[in-house]
Predict the structure.
Amino acid sequence: MRELLILVKRHMCIYFADKGNIIFTCLSSIIVVMLYAFFIFDTQVDSLVAAMADTDRTEAVTFVCTWFLAGQITLIIFGATFNAMAIFIDDMKYNGSDVQIFPLSKVKIIVSYCIQAVLIALLFGIGSLIIGTLLILCQQGYLIPASSLFAAVGVIILGTIFSAILAMFIVTFMKTAKSFSSVQIVLNTLMGFLIGMYIPIGTLPDFMQKIIFWNPYMSMSVWLRELLASEEFQQLFAKAPSLQQDQLAVFYGLRAESFDTLWSTSDLALFIASITVIIFAFLLVSFAKKRYTR
């Protein structure tokens, strides 16, 4: 255990020694927020006000802010875990000689990189949750319930574990940092749409919705939206019939639906956990077939 902790500390030190990693992770998040605020935010608020009679614009603004915050946290978790895994590629460039001086099995070496990615993603994910909550409080005077915030931290923890294992699995197929960077850029570009972050998931064609709802990152963002935006959603659509509320919740990505069945939070948790276990099993098989020698 001591060797594992030392190895995790070593990975963390390497990551934070490169200030560019931290700067660009934060900068990319800021750019996404600014682009959304300038080009999409007002349009989405206006459409809500126009669609619902007697809608308070302040409530619509608060709902859109909390709705966007959930998607932004999911995107940050994805980006942070993949950025953290760049250390693995750099190590393998030298056949992992620095890592193999530790008397650890391959499984523990994998776990050390995953723990490092989880800790880094938790830092950015929980930091984004806190900053976003404070900004909404200052701008709109709305404080997300403490119970929802604590539950959101739990979702972030589960999500970072899944994302770290997925990132580790993908980088085992990458031979150079350049190829990994290219894959990451493509995935980052797509992920905003695959989690319904920029526009409501209900605006996409039906076949795309059915595919996207099986994306674990989408499940993560749905769970976070349900926690962070559900109170404002209920106030905004309080006059709508219960059946229409369920349809609107699916439309805005506060609920996941497949085979005409709404998923509960336990369903989302089980789905994410199951995919995590499956990918980790594939990761062990993939890593076992590779030979890293000094």
In short: The chain is about 75% helix and 0% strand. The mean pLDDT is 87. The CA atoms of residues 51 and 250 lie 16 Å apart. The chain has one domain: 2-289.
